[in-house]
Amino acid sequence: MTTYAIGDLQGCHAEFMALLERLTFDPDQDRLWLVGDLVNRGPDSLACLREVMALDKAVQVVLGNHDLHLLAVARGSATLKRKDTLETILQAPDREILLDWLQSRPLLLAEEGRVMTHAGLLPHWSLPQAIELAREVEQRLASDASGAFLEQMYGNEPAHWRDDLDGIERLRFIVNAFTRMRFIDAQGHLDFTAKEGLESAPPGFAPWFTFPRRDDPLIIFGHWAALGGRTVGSQVRAEALDTGCVWGGSLTALNLATGERMNESRHPR
Q1: Pairing assessment for the beta strands 250-255 and 3-6 based on DSSP bridges
Q2: How do residues 185-220 score in pLDDT, each as one tens digit?
Q3: Active site includes 118?
Q4: Which of 13, 66, 124, 223 is catalytic?
Q5: CB count, 10 Å around CB of 232?
Q6: Overall number of domains in the chain
């Protein structure tokens, strides 16, 4: 059995299927870890969502910011943005089945010394603490209060973690740390203004993976296509897997046993 971690699909269904073929992926024997953002901006979000859900026990997925955006549009009060490509899901006859499945995905997966989240792991949180905080959001998404949560989920504040945060502010920070984080400062403040490469860091801020941790899990993440799959200056073991397939780059798979990477370039449309 081989386990592969794959970067942000974002509706790139053709590339996803081509990559699985190159990997000779067998769902009866092999396993997939997907770093979230299954949908949006790409051409075939509905096909991606159906394909991944059909893999059933062969796949494990964490929620990304675009996945949560879909849920917020469908079940909260958010509206579609100009570049969104979510209409086919919202209009699909099986939309509620797909949305129920997506909403039941975790924010964090930890197994055998590896941890996967969409955006990374805040260095100020221990792994046990991060697991517990992720569960707080997952429990809210599974509750009758999920709609109210999705309506209040958006926002950049608070930008700094405190153990005494409560209510929606606590849940919002947890979501932002797991699904939107890029640059932080030494105190753990999140910056949401810079979204490009390392050179775009605001004064006093640096990539989250350049701050050391007290523990040493292998951190698997996506979200940050501008990194090009590289974590320059990293002080932790981190694997960046978003290589910008939806932006004309490639879709990357990582063999978790060997560390070997395989890419599938964007198909011309």
Answers
A1: antiparallel
A2: 999 999 999 999 999 999 999 999 999 999 999 999
A3: no
A4: 66
A5: 12
A6: 1
What's the confidence (pLDDT) of residue 68?
98
Find the radius of gyration of the CA atoms of the chain: 17
- Identify the DSSP state of 242: -
Q: What are the percentages of helix, strand and coil residues in the chain, rounded to 5?
A: 35, 15, 50
Say whether pTM exceeds 0.85: yes
Q: What is the pLDDT of residue 267?
A: 60
Neighbouring C-beta atoms of residue 173, cutoff 10 Å: 22
**Domain region containing 28:** 3-265
Burial of 113 (0-12, 13-18, 19+ CB in 10 A): exposed
Cα distances (Å, whole numbers) of residue 123 to 69, 155, 215:
25, 22, 9
Q: Are 208 and 217 in contact (CB under 8 A)?
A: no
Q: Dump the DSSP string for 178-240.
A: HHT--EE-TT--EE-S--S-GGGPPTT-EEGGGS--SS-PEEEE-S-GGGTT--TT-SS-EEE
SS3 of 143, please?
A: coil
CA distance 104 to 61: 10
Strand-pairing partners, residue 264, are 251
Residue ranges, the chain, pLDDT below 50: 269
- Confidence at residue 265, expressed as pLDDT on a 0 to 100 scale: 83
CATH for 126: 3.60.21.10
Buried b / exposed e along 204-223 (16+ C-beta atoms within 10 A): ebbbbbbbebeeebbbbbbb
| Rounded Cα distance, 208 and 182, in Å | 6
User: CB of 237 within 8 A of CB of 215?
Assistant: no
